[in-house]
Amino acid sequence: MKYSNVALSITGLLLIFGVAAKSQPLKVSDNKRFLVKEDGSPFFYLADTGWELFHRLDRNEADYYLRNRASKGFTAIQAVILSEINGLTVPNAEGNLPLVDFDPSQPNEKYFELVDHVVQKAEEFGLYMALLPTWGAHAEDQPHPLFDNKMIFTESNARTYGEFLGKRYKDQWNVLWILGGDRVPTGKENIWNAMAEGLKKGAGNAHLISYHPSGQQTSSEWFHKTNWLDFNILQSEHQRFSDNVYTRVANDYNLSPPKPVLNGEPAYEDINEWFNPANPRYNDYEIRKYAYWSVFAGAFGHTYGNNNIWQMYTADVSPIIYANMPWNEALEQPGASQMKHLRNLMESRPFLTRIPDQSLINQENYEYASDHMQATRNGQPGKKDATYIMAYLPMSRDVSIKTDAIAGGNLFVWWYSPVTGEAIPYGKVKNTGVFKISTWNVFIKENQPGPDWVIVIDDADKKYPAPGKK
Question: What is the rounded end-to-end Cα distance, in angstroms, of the chain?
Fold first, then answer.
């Protein structure tokens, strides 16, 4: 298939010129809760899962993909250099394998020229590349028959490979490193520690590093107190609708010392629950729930995924986990376009002082429930210094929110749609310490897609713009 470099050209040019002055490497915020740009300005990590990008797309296709994701408000792409699906034995779209003789200490220059191109093209669009040096299987599974029945990675060549990558991309402001790749590292910690040491030796502290574990796991279990892990990643995975992702995020958020936390692989849009074709597929509504639950529970951003896109599926390859739509068509599935509304909402209020606060929920609110409400605000824990409160409601219900965390005497209340990004004013009310409404749906325009909403309660004196606007 062919992809025009002219497509979305106006959007592309706007993005290029709009981000040029803001192109900065990332670091951890002073309060250890967020990622920020080098000058300390806020950064909302909104990633798309493009695991097979370097393996299955040629340059024109990769450019098309990156341009599309930038135009939809994504800020990062998660992709694997030594990919999962026969990534060591099947050449990439340009006919090149990544390693000479399956040896990580002998990277193939021609393969990495494509990686270079993608990283640099992402830079043009203001996108950060969260790069996995290898899929975890190549470091942690069985010996490879094409490599003299030895493990592909050893502690020694993992360090060498890490140093190669660090040196090669040390001057790219838009790179982050994610070790692992859907694996539990027990017994192989030395491999990942060595690879991290190599990355640091090659690039110094130019780039942040984390680890991507297997499903229902978190990097904190193995690496939280290592000096190379800058932020934690958990994978809530694809096993059940309404998974309690908020509990998983909160567990990492509350660890000591504090480190930023990310749900780096929630359920994918258009994947079957429990990977079983007899079960329904995750739709945009289920994907939104995971996103808002995760961020409101304390995550510094979110990763979106699509079952057709992570594998860059086309009719020319065998589908994995029942992929059913070409990747270029799946780019337009609704969940991806809706993710920007979460980013816009977070960026429309004070960003770096935001905290999770379930004490604001003044009503029955079960764990492990499809209608679980999750609340966030700004300010300090235990202090009544907030200037805004947000609560995510997965479905229409009566609402009772404590507002005494806001000191101001008047509140301005909004309803914000995670589907459309529209902010609907409820209006100004007195701050009595609790905001209740039992017929709130009469204030929502008819035929709104829903069923989920965010209630935004501001200190009226702050005169904040409408949620989602700057």
Answer: 39
Residues paired with residue 179 on neighbouring β-strands, in sequence order: 211
8 A C-beta contact, residue 102 and residue 144: yes
For the segment 411-438, the average pLDDT, to the nearest whole number, is: 94
Residue 6 clears pLDDT 70, i.e. is over it: no
Non-local CB neighbours of 426 within 8 Å, separated by 6+ positions: 413, 414, 415, 437, 440, 443
- Which amino acid, one-letter code, is at 26? L
Q: Are 297 and 253 in contact (CB under 8 A)?
A: yes
Buried b (16+ CB within 10 A) or exposed e, 259-296: bbbbbbbbbbbbbbbeeeeeeebbebbbbbbbbbbbbb
What pLDDT, on a 0 to 100 scale, did the predictor assign at position 284? 97
447, pLDDT greater than 80: no
Could you give the CA distance from residue 433 to residue 272 in angstroms, rounded to a whole number? 43
- Best CA proximity match to 55, nearest among 282, 327, 333: 327
Pair 34, 295: CB distance under 8 Å: no
In eight-state DSSP terms, residue 167 is H
Tokens of 253: 């958020």
Task: Decide: 440 and 451 in contact? Cβ < 8 Å.
Answer: no
Tell me which residue has tokens 């990919």. 83
Measured between alpha carbons, how far is 120 from 127 in angstroms, rounded to an integer?
9
Residue 37's SS3 state is: strand
Average pLDDT in the 27-48 region?
97
Side chain identity, residue 112: F
Q: Within 13 Å and on the Cβ side, how many CA atoms surround 101?
A: 5
Angle (nearest 5°) at CA 148 between 144 and 154? 65
pLDDT digits (tens, 9 = 90+) for 331-390: 999 999 999 999 999 999 999 999 999 999 999 898 878 999 999 999 999 899 999 999
Number of Cβ within 10 Å of residue 466's Cβ equals: 15
pTM of structure: 0.94
The pLDDT assigned to 144 comes to: 63
Q: What is the spatial distance between Cα 179 and Cα 136, in angstroms, rounded to a whole number?
A: 8
Pair 430, 461: CB distance under 8 Å: no
Contact call for residues 158 and 202 (beta carbons, < 8 A): no
Q: Which two tokens stand for residue 65?
A: 């993909």
Q: At 14, is the pLDDT very low, low, confident or very high (cuts 50, 70, 90)?
A: very low
